[in-house]
Amino acid sequence: MDFSNKNLWLLFEWGDTNIYVTQSMLAVWIVSGALILLAIAVRLRVSSFKALPGRAQNVVEALVETMANFTRDTMGEEFEGFGAYFFGIFAFIIFSNYSGLARLRPPTSDLAVTLALALCSFLVIHITAIRKRKWNYLKSYIEPNPIFLPINLIGMVAEPISLGFRLFGNMLGSVVIINIVYYLLPWFLSFIIPDILHAYFDIFAGGLQAFIFTVLSMTFIKQKAVSSF
Where are the beta strands (DSSP E) in 1-93? Predict the structure, then answer.
């Protein structure tokens, strides 16, 4: 693997084609691998859970119950089943945002990643709306007059784009600011001020952006599934 470029690395050559890996791709693999290993570890421990929970069981049950309660309070009891989906989305985003603490480039500072997350929410939003409201949902795009169809379609597409760009813009801005600070500071200050910025941008802002993305996705699902334009 060629590490001569800090942002783009040559993984291997396939004939006349060079296969590259970027910092964002590497971070996605690391975050995804960590979450998969964590999920496997929890799954193996589930069978040993007891009526009198230990420390690890308390943590797992608290996280699951918190997301289930939050989903029910935000979306209503009929959408409580989305808790597992949004738990996964929230975990991936917050782990990605916090990966900056390990000096990785947060995957959420890459537009391809945030738009992929937004596309997932887009599909869930409209599939759920069609299942709940069926023809009435499709008909709502031409109400009160078919002339509003283009406007309604633009609004439909704007929702996932706004989700993706909001997360991308905030996280990219954090990466740019921190990198500028690293570049401008003398070496003896590079262990103090950047840590303060990491605490704000990675921990506070990263957690906030994960929360906002999750809540907005929940809100869009509920709006589309239970109401009309």
Answer: 8-14, 17-22
